[in-house]
Every structure is written in C-alpha cells, then in structure tokens.
C-alpha cells in the first residue's frame, strides 16, 4: 500500500499532528520551519485539523517582535476513537481520547457466540451501551476499528481466516457493522494494531525498527519502521506464526507445513495439557483456550514441572522462529503483547533474549531489546483505536474506512 | 536508519531526481506542482543538481502564455558510478551512467586472492585501469561502491562475515579503499544492492512490495517498498539464507542451526556433488564453487537425473524458506538474481511459484510474481553503482560514504 508522498498529501497531515503531539504547544510558523511546507499549506492543514476537532488553539500566544503567534495543541477530549479486538471467545472494546489514552474498557461476547450477522448486531448494541455508559455522544466518535487475526482483505474490510473464524470468511464485516453504527468503520489485523498501539503508548523512537509479537489464539506480529506500520503488498505481513519450523511437520490451515503456531500457540499448548490426565484434572482445563492457557501459564510460573516444561517448550519454539524473524526484519526492539504473554511472558522473553544474544545474524552489529507489554490483554484493542486516530488524522493512509 | 523526512531534506532531492528521470523533460513549475514543495525549494534543489552535473537544462522551452519554461533532464553521461561486487573468487566491476545504464564491465580478482590490504591495493589499481580503458576521467566519477555478503557494519564500512571472508572481519574496507582512490567510497550488502539494481533497471512500480533473492556463495535478499530499500535497524535485513528450516539441523557460521544456505546454497550443492564419485568425475568438479555449481546446474537443465535431483532438492528447500519469507514481508513480486540462478534459475522459479500458489498465507489476497533476473551475474555490481547514484543524488540516505 506504499504510495508516493507529496508535501500536500495525507502524510503531511500526519506529520503536522505528530509534531504538535510531540512538541507540545507550537505555532504555525514553527510548523512551517519544521516541515518545510509552505505557510498556505500549513494554514490549510491546521484549519482542517481544528475543524475536525483534532487540534485546538491554546489561547496563549508568544511574542517574537513581529505579529504574536498563536500556539496549537492536541485537543485530547474533543474526539474519541473506539477499538474492538474481536476474538473467538470474547471481544475487548476500548475507547481512547485523541492522544491514545484509554478512557473506557468493556468486554463483549466474541466471534464464536453466534452467526456473523447476529454477532455484529450484538456488537453494535454493546457499542452503543458502552458509549452511553461513558457519557460519550456518538457525534464525538471519530470511528470504530475492529481487528481480528489475519489473513484479512483490508480494502474490502473482510476476514479471510483463520479456521476459528471459518464462518466469517468473506462476511463483509466492515460494511455490515457500518450499516448499524453512525461512525466510520475499518477492519484491520490485530497484530498490526497491537504494534501501532504499543509504538504509540510506549513512545518508541521513530528511529527504531520495532516489532511487536502478538500471541492470542494465533501468533502474529507487526513492524513499525520510520514511524509507520510496515504494510507489505496487502497488509498481511509479519506472520511469524507461519514461519515453518519443520518442513515435514503438521499441516497448518494456511496451507503450509510445520508452522510455528501449530506447536507454540495457546491452542497447541492447551491440547498438549489436556492430553496429560494429571495436569488436565489438576488445572481444570476445558475448551476455553484463554482460561485454560492461563491456568497452565500460572502453574508454570509457580514452578510446577510439567506445566513449566510445556511453556518452556512453546517458548523455545517461539525463540527459534523469532531468530528467523529478526534475521529478516533486522529489528532493534521487540515487545511481547497479547493474552498469550499475560502470565508467563517472562519465560518467553528469557528464551527469546538468550536465542538472539547467541544466534542472531547481526548480533555483532546491534542488540535487540525484548520487553513485555504492560497491558498485554488490551493492546490490540488500544491499537485498533490508534488506527482510527491515524486514519482520521491522515485519511488515505492504511485501511479504507466505510462511512 | 529511518529518519524523519522534511520537505527540504534529502528525500526531496531524490524525489525531484526521480520525477525528472521518470517524467522526461520537465519544467521547474511542473516540479513545484508535482512535489508540493515551494518554488524557492525547487530552485535550490535544481541549482544544486545542475552544479553536481546530475541534471541539465535541455535548451528547449515551452511557452505557456506566461514566461517560457526551461525544461530539465537527467544528464546521463556527465557523471559515472562504479559498482564492485566483491566475491571470494572474483569481483565484478561495473561503470554506469547517471541513468543506471551499464557503460563498462570488467572482472577483477576476488577477496580470496590475498591479504585484505593487498586485495584492496589491487582493486584500486584495477579500478584506475578500468577507467583509463573506458576513457573516463576520475573527476567524472561520482563514487565507488563495493558490496559483499553480510553481515556488514554500514556506518563503519566494515565486513563482519561470512566465513569465506574471515580475514576481512573488522578490516576497514571502506576507509582502506578511500585512501587509494580520489572518489567517495561506500560499502554495502550485495543483496541489498542487487534489489535496488533490479528495481531500477526493471522499472518496478513504487507501489510494489518487491523482493530480490540473491544467490551467490550465500543466499540473501533485498526488499524495496515505497521505492526505498527496507534497511531495518542496521542494514542487515532479509537474510533469507538464515531462516532455519530445521531446528535440529547443522550449525551455521551465523550461530544458528539449520539455516537454509547450509543446505541449498551453491557450496552445499557442490559439496554434495563432489561426494558423488560418478558426478564428480563426469563434471570435473573442483574447489572453484561458481564453476562447479555452473556445471551441476547445466547438467540439471540438460536432464541428467543425479544433477537434476540435487538442484531440485536445493530449489525445494529454497521454496520452503521463501514461503516463510513471503509470509513475513508480504511481497507481490520476487526476482531471482546472482550467479547461483544464472543457469538453472528456471528450476528454482518453478518450485518457488508452486509453493507460493499452494501455500502462501495471503494467497487469497494477492499473487506473487516470480521472475528471473535478465543479468544475474552482474546485478549486485550494477546495484552497487545504483547505490552511488542514490547517495550522490540524495546524500544522507543509506550507507555513509568516506571521501
């Protein structure tokens, strides 16, 4: 989805917002100097940002000898963004203000709770209730972003896979939801959203080549380089869960064999746990993958040998694939996010760090920092809201919205 | 190496050159419109490009009712760029004009022909002889770029690996060569150079997410997205040869196990060939990897079963790793370049195409075109020269030059 940038294109709007956000109150003249754009371009962009409620004049001015300069700042509570991470068992819904700060959170039922059309209708109703509860009028919502595991069709707003979402294949998720709400809707990949959310909330440097590995029922990742998400040809990149770690391994829904997530993701770990009668009974494992994986992860952290062995095995396989991943993307920082890392993330981080320190191709050129998300269960939904902020700030970039 | 772009930064210079190159003769006013930059910015950039000999006025003007507009064009023969692909056995040296067209070619002795300082002295002498033979005065050379297999230290202009280059580790290649020639010198990765060279010479769209897989004694790749090389944190990305295809596999010099290139690259294929007494004798295999691999590849193309089996095995392993590679970079086009693909590239292309069509993660979202370089043995050297053109056109981007 790369496109040529021109000084008056949507990239300039994003750059201006980014400068206002990062520099604090700033004048139009300073923006002109910092961007190299013309004064009329800056005036136009700023006027539209004020009209859209994204930016406001602070009221303060600075005197510079000439005409006093009015200062601009981000209008944090004028507009809200809604992000929903649609999982199989439940959906996390987050409202953020314009700066990306979390303003409200609620759990909805997930994609597995009914036929797609029913689920979408319930989400729309839950969303309206959520706004009411927060006292947010829908006119102040910039948009609603719903993120799911890939592959996705970003342009059409469709979900293509994975198998847990089988009934959703080719269901027009974006358009069906847009029919039921009064705000623009977009659909994107949960791992990409997660990367953008972590990048924003942790204020990672734009100089960084940053990866966020996301483990939910599958394993994905997002890359941020030069301050922007790496999109690839179809916004389906960074599928670390579909690195093959065994050419003769088990078949994966994606068509390939030996994919990492068939061995290391929570469903595989829970399946192994349920096959162990003693562990199965002691931890009360069942068909709720998230709750069961949490139980195994908790037991591992408490040092129960069999559970620890299973989590460590998953972590070693993850570390193996992360080596290949790092040898391809040459990142300097990785954060681990998603509910799969919520309890035993430190075991994964330890295995990944050890592998990268000893075996990464470019380890003599630079190290790779590996850290845990501070909010692993919500990061995809927070990132989904960040996608709305980015889209409404810089229309034309990223996924297409349906109004 | 991502950095924030501003309208007056080096990115603008590259954009202006790119527009002049792709649009043919164009006026300053049209450049102002196409870029959104101010007239003074365009005038400054154009004046510097004319001073540097990159752009010239055509002499023609167009009348538009107002002041007649002078047209600008790329000055193809005013400046030359030199690219050297330094391999173990030999080095390919290419001179290109400002448009990237090949003006001259010569083979030098490679990195294995002596101590690093001796080799560099011989390269400097060969380079001077090469210029004399072509009738190019060194004052018209924009720079010399020398590319090698990674890992590299781009900022220092050092080679870190691979083991065939062991004596070169930490040898200050860029600075040693810069002492002996009168032009700026840069060092970069041969696969990255190759990708840039193919991208330029094939006029791949900037909308494409493009990969060039490079097979020489190792296997690497380069990615071009949005018209620019994907650099990662240290310009050591896209190391497809160091995707592990077998966690319990053989150790690789990089520190990892089961790396693709230990099974599929020419040295591994030649080693297997030499272990087969009948094949070894019939094809006259020896320690010259390139010549021996060519002999096996030629026999495979001619349908000799044992040779075909070996090349197909290499191609299948390559296809396996390419699946993981595509699942990470989400590319829409792959070209195969480097001497490893010069003879039996079609076998590799067939295996890779089949794997991607049946097993790529995002195959329902889009296909991936797989094509052969038209000039596989020279592509890294041509790309090295393209790096010089890019650096001299847009200083501050990419590897740092030593003058």
UniProtKB/TrEMBL annotation, chains A, B:
Residue runs in coiled coils: none
Any one GO molecular-function label of the UniProt entry: kinase activity
Alphabetical list of InterPro entries matching this protein: ATPase_NBD (IPR043129), ROK (IPR000600), ROK_cs (IPR049874), WH-like_DNA-bd_sf (IPR036388), WH_DNA-bd_sf (IPR036390)
Alphabetical UniProt keywords: Kinase, Transferase
One Pfam family here: HTH_24
Membrane-spanning parts: none
Gene3D superfamilies: 3.30.420.40, Winged helix-like DNA-binding domain superfamily/Winged helix DNA-binding domain (1.10.10.10)
Entries under PANTHER family matching the protein: GLUCOKINASE, ROK (REPRESSOR, ORF, KINASE) FAMILY
Protein family according to the UniProt entry: Belongs to the ROK (NagC/XylR) family.
Protein name: NBD/HSP70 family sugar kinase
Native species: Agromyces terreus
């Amino acid at each position: 989805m790369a496109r040529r940038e021109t000084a008056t294109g949507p990239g300039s709007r994003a750059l201006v917002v980014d400068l206002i956000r990062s520099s604090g109150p700033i004048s139009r003249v300073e923006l002109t100097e910092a961007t190299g754009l013309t004064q009329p371009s800056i005036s136009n962009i700023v006027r539209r940002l004020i009209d859209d409620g994204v930016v406001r004049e602070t009221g303060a001015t600075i005197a510079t000898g000439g005409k006093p300069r009015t200062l601009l700042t981000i209008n944090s509570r004028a507009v809200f963004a809604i992000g929903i991470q649609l999982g199989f068992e439940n959906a996390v819904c987050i409202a953020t203000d314009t700066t990306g700060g979390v303003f409200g959170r609620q759990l909805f039922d997930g994609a597995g709770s009914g036929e797609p059309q029913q689920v979408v209708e319930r989400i729309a109703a839950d969303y309206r209730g959520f706004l009411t509860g927060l006292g947010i009028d829908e006119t102040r919502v910039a948009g609603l972003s719903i993120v799911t595991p890939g592959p996705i069709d970003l342009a059409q707003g469709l979900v293509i896979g994975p198998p847990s979402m089988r009934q959703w294949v080719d269901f027009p998720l974006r358009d069906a939801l847009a029919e039921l709400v009064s705000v623009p809707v977009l659909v994107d990949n949960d791992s990409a959203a997660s990367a953008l959310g972590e990048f924003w909330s942790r204020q990672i440097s734009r100089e960084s080549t940053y990866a966020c590995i996301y483990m939910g029922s599958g394993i994905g990742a997002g890359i941020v380089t030069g301050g922007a998400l790496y999109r690839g040809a179809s916004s389906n990149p960074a599928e670390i869960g579909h690195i093959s770690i065994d050419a003769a391994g088990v078949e994966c829904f994606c068509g390939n064999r030996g994919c990492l997530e068939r061995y290391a993701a929570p469903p595989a770990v829970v399946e192994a746990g349920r096959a162990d009668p003693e562990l199965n009974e002691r931890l009360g494992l069942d068909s709720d993958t998230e709750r069961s994986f949490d139980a195994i992860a908790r037991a591992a952290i408490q040092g129960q040998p069999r559970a620890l062995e299973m989590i460590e095995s998953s972590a070693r396989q993850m570390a193996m694939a992360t080596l290949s991943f790092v040898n391809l993307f040459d990142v300097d920082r990785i954060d681990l996010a998603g509910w799969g890392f919520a309890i035993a993330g430190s075991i994964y981080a330890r295995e990944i760090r050890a592998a990268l320190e000893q075996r990464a191709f470019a380890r003599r050129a630079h190290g790779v920092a590996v850290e845990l998300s501070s909010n692993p269960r919500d990061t995809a939904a927070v990132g989904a809201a960040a996608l709305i902020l980015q889209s409404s700030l810089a229309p034309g970039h990223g996924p297409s919205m349906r109004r």
